[in-house]
Each structure stands twice: as structure tokens, then as C-alpha cells.
Design goal:
By secondary structure, the protein is of the alpha/beta class. It has 3 helices and 5 strands, in the order αβββαβαβ. Helix content is 35%, strand content 15%. Strands 3-2-1-4-5 form a 5-stranded mixed beta sheet, covered by helices on one side. Helix 2 runs parallel beside helix 3.
Length: 136
């Protein structure tokens, strides 16, 4: 059985098939054509060194509770409606600004909680959250 020709001679095949080598060279050429412009167009920048320690500055949390009668408690201290606005404005002026956590009794009128939210918005507090109890 002969590889190169169909005649019955027992000559050794002395030609190298160049097609696979040309295919490989063309693929490498395409890869270099694509990657070289990316490497040449990069900008050399000497970046500054910085520590990667996370900042542990956590803002204060203000707890505003509304009981069943509609009374306001700021950090477990009972306050009036007028005092609520001034206390929240004082808190909004702090840096970093504290978070306001509102806890409303389930039997309180929605109006009282909405008034507390409006007072917080007018004072300039940006982070307001609601505290609830999970269902069992």
C-alpha cells in the first residue's frame, strides 16, 4: 500500500505535506495581528499606592418608635411633635449622617408614621428604615 501515488512502486515518499504547517502559521499570524495593537495602545501609568483597609466608620442609628397611642419616642425618650423636627434636624447635620430606624406599633394610625417620615424628610435625613418582627 503506497501513500503518494497509485502505481505499484515501493518508493519511499520524499515530499512533506506543507498544508497543516501553513494552517498553523496562519492561525498564529491572526492571533498576533489581534493582540499586538492591544499591547501597543496601552497607556503606561504609574499608579499611586494605597492601603486596602476598609473604613470602620459606621453611622449612628437613631431609633424612632411610635406607640399605639401615636406618641413618639426617640431612642426610648418620649418627645413631642415639635421636638421631633428639631431633634431630626440636629441629627441630619451630623457627619456621617445617622440612619433613622422607625418602629411603628401595628395598631397605630398610618398618619402618625407618615408624619414622622415627613419630618425626617424635611430635616434632611436620607437613610430611613422600618423595623418589623419576622413572622413565626
Amino acid at each position: 500500500m503506497a501513500f503518494g501515488t497509485q502505481d505499484d512502486s515501493d518508493e519511499v515518499m520524499n515530499e512533506i505535506n506543507m498544508t497543516p504547517m501553513v494552517d498553523i502559521m496562519l492561525v498564529l499570524l491572526i492571533i498576533f495581528i489581534i493582540t499586538v495593537p492591544v499591547m501597543k495602545h496601552s497607556v503606561n501609568i504609574d499608579l499611586p499606592r494605597a492601603s486596602n483597609e476598609a473604613q470602620n466608620i459606621k453611622p449612628e442609628t437613631i431609633r424612632l418608635s411610635v406607640d399605639a397611642e401615636g406618641s413618639y419616642f426617640l431612642n426610648e425618650t418620649k418627645i413631642t411633635d415639635d421636638e421631633l423636627g428639631t431633634q431630626l434636624k440636629t441629627a441630619a447635620a451630623q457627619n456621617p449622617q445617622p440612619e433613622l430606624h422607625i418602629r411603628g406599633d401595628k395598631s397605630v394610625r398610618y398618619e402618625r408614621v407618615a408624619q414622622a417620615m415627613a419630618a425626617a424628610q424635611q430635616a434632611g435625613l436620607r437613610k430611613i428604615g422600618f423595623i418589623t418582627e419576622p413572622k413565626n
